[in-house]
Amino acid sequence: MKVVCVTGASGFIASWLVKLLLARGYTVHATVRSLDDPKKTEHLQALDEAKERLTLFEADLITEGSFDSAFEGCVCVFHTASPVVFTVDDPKAQLMDPAVKGTINVLKSAAKVPSLKRVVLTSSIAAVMFGVDVPQSSVVDETWFSNPLVCEQKEMWYFVSKTLAEDAAVKYSKENGLELVAINPGFVIGPILQPTLNLTSEKFMNFLKTGKELFPDGIYMLVDVRDVAAAHILAFENPEAKGRYLMVGNMVRSSVIMKILEKFYPAFGFSQRYEDNNCNEPLPYSISRARAESLGVEFTPLEVTIEDTVEILKEKKLLNL
Fold first, then answer.
1. Rg for the chain, CA atoms, rounded
2. Which of 43, 91, 142, 174 is deepest in the core (most CB within 10 A)?
3. Can you give the residue ranges of every domain in the chain?
4. 173-216: per-residue pLDDT in tens?
5. CATH for the stretch 3-188+222-248+285-299
6. End-to-end distance of the chain based on CA atoms, in angstroms?
């Protein structure tokens, strides 16, 4: 049984990653910011096989060396730990340092472990296609890179942090003999395992409640959290995997989401909303799924993802129907 480590294990994607790794027979080391916080630990300890093959470690992104003990004996690190916030008062302290310096601290700890050769990094589409011109009918793929200078001018701090963190990780890995694979998901939804709402789930829930658009153009680049977690594992298990992998299962206008909601949940009252908002114009660009599918990713149908998202929010008493 191979030993792997997941950083930031209490998060949305990471919790599913721990769950799937345990189900595949891995022994998992998982880092959290505080072992004394039940919101960070209890849902992980309740997973199947957790008692037998899950060990929790406390680690802090901005403290160099704090991941050393968690990585001991591991063959792979899945680095998911990074703040996901769009509004900040202090971009350096709240985003840049944890994302960029934190990633380097993780890689420094990884480089100390002889058995550890591969790191799978949770990056983002935020590092792919923002602060750049996207020509009409373009196909956005892994060769695209966000422009951090433009993003900074627009105070898009989360996008800056993800772009700089991925760039720093690539450079450090090349210089220190680590194999790095980056997973770049779009807007992640799906069933939550953790007890608290993550940012994307919260924003999607608010859309369900109000019908108010999350994005000015009403275009949603959605991906199921279970597909993102599975892609991380495939990126480790496939020795040929390298570079970055975009993870966008469906790029749709909000009217498509509303139609699905109306089909399964007419009590939401989305029928009038999607009729009023029914845009028939073609999407201005598309997101390539080719590399993700070459990795072995099988994307969950959008209807399944949306239904599972709503059902877990209902179960947790966050949505009333």
1. 19
2. 43
3. 3-188+222-248+285-299
4. 999 999 999 999 999 999 999 999 999 999 999 998 888 888 87
5. 3.40.50.720
6. 44
